[in-house]
């Protein structure tokens, strides 16, 4: 039997919020325009410029000479020292930061410890450059506060042991100031993801605390821990202001060598500086890619 036109139910067209969700207006994109503009001006265009400049000579002609110079002994030595400083500060920062986060979250400490630690970590992880260098020179320099106190009240000359704030150890200690808080901020969500029933199940089956951490907690946390260590490595490898303000040219690391090639009067070779920066981008890019992959794996493991 045919259906009359009056009996057909017509769905009203989508209007209001539902229609806006399906077809967002151009005005909704205005909120992200500053982000895209910032990324274009301060990330994409500078990166493209140095990538092109790394394969050009002073006259703008194509050359592989800048890339070949990266394998000179002095430049390889600078990369190796940067690698050592970054690895030492990343491993030390990840270990100490992990222990601090575990103590604040699952250590049974007073409730005010965690918010205080997180607040300090948020501030200290962004404290770098000239202020941080001045703070460490004023604390551990030859006439620094701690150095003078040890000499006057403990009869211990810190610099007689061979220590120097301008050395590999001094720069690593300075980097740890912002590496440790950064690790606390990164690894805290992963520790929060450990469910209480997992420990209860382990204990109900007769497992000890060591067995819980070895067989349950650490296998779940290790992608986050390793990924955070890679992120700390990239963070230290690309730091230039702190190292330059603290050590000047006394420590031959890549960021200082790069600065000397681009801004220096003696070693000025802008295109070689671009090639050095390209090498740093490759190293930090691989580290960040490893962090992203491990973070996604950690998130799948907690589902």
Q: What's the overall average pLDDT, rounded?
A: 86
Gyration radius over CA: 27 Å
Structural class: mainly alpha
Distance between the termini: 54 Å
Q: Could you estimate the helical fraction of the residues in percent?
A: 55-70%
What series of H and E elements makes up the topology?
HHHHHHHHHHHHH
Named CATH topology:
MetI-like fold
Question: What characteristic shape results from the CA principal axes?
Answer: globular
CATH architecture: Orthogonal Bundle
Number of helices: 13
Can you identify the CATH class? Mainly Alpha
Strand runs, count: 0
Instruction: Say which CATH homologous superfamily is assigned.
Output: MetI-like
Q: How is the biggest beta sheet arranged? A: none
Beta-sheet strand percentage? under 5%
Q: How many domain regions?
A: 1
Ranges where pLDDT stays below 50 over 5 or more residues in a row are none
Describe this structure in words.
By secondary structure, this protein is mainly α. It has a single domain (70-301), classed as MetI-like (MetI-like fold, Orthogonal Bundle), CATH 1.10.3720.10. The protein has helices at 17-22, 33-53, 65-69, 73-106, 113-124, 130-140, 145-153, 168-192, 196-204, 209-237, 241-247, 254-263, 270-301.
């Amino acid at each position: 039997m045919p259906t009359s036109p009056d009996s057909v139910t017509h769905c009203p067209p989508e209007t209001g919020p539902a229609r806006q969700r399906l077809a967002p207006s151009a005005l909704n994109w205005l909120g992200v325009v500053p982000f895209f503009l910032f990324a274009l001006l301060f990330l994409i265009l500078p990166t493209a410029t140095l990538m092109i400049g790394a394969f050009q000579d002073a006259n703008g002609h194509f050359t592989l000479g800048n890339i070949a110079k990266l394998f000179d002994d002095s430049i390889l030595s600078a990369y190796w020292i940067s690698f050592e400083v970054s690895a030492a500060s990343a491993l030390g920062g990840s270990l100490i930061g992990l222990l601090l986060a575990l103590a604040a979250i699952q250590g049974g400490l007073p409730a005010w410890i965690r918010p205080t630690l997180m607040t300090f970590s948020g501030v200290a992880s962004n404290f770098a450059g000239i202020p941080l260098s001045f703070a460490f020179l004023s604390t551990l320099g030859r006439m620094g506060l701690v150095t003078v106190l040890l000499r006057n009240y403990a009869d211990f000359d810190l610099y007689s042991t061979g220590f120097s704030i301008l050395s590999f150890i001094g720069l690593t200690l300075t980097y740890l100031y912002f590496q440790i808080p950064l690790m606390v901020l990164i690894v805290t969500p992963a520790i929060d993801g450990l469910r209480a029933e997992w420990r209860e199940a382990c204990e109900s089956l007769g497992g000890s605390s060591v067995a819980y951490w070895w067989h349950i907690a650490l296998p779940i946390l290790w992608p986050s821990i390793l990924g955070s260590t890679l992120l700390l490595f990239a963070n230290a490898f690309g730091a230039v202001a702190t190292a330059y303000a603290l050590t000047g040219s006394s420590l031959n690391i890549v960021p200082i060598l790069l600065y000397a090639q681009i801004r220096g009067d003696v070693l000025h070779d802008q295109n070689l500086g671009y090639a050095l920066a390209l090498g740093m981008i490759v190293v930090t890019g691989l580290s960040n890619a490893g962090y992203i992959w491990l973070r996604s794996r950690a998130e799948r493991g907690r589902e």
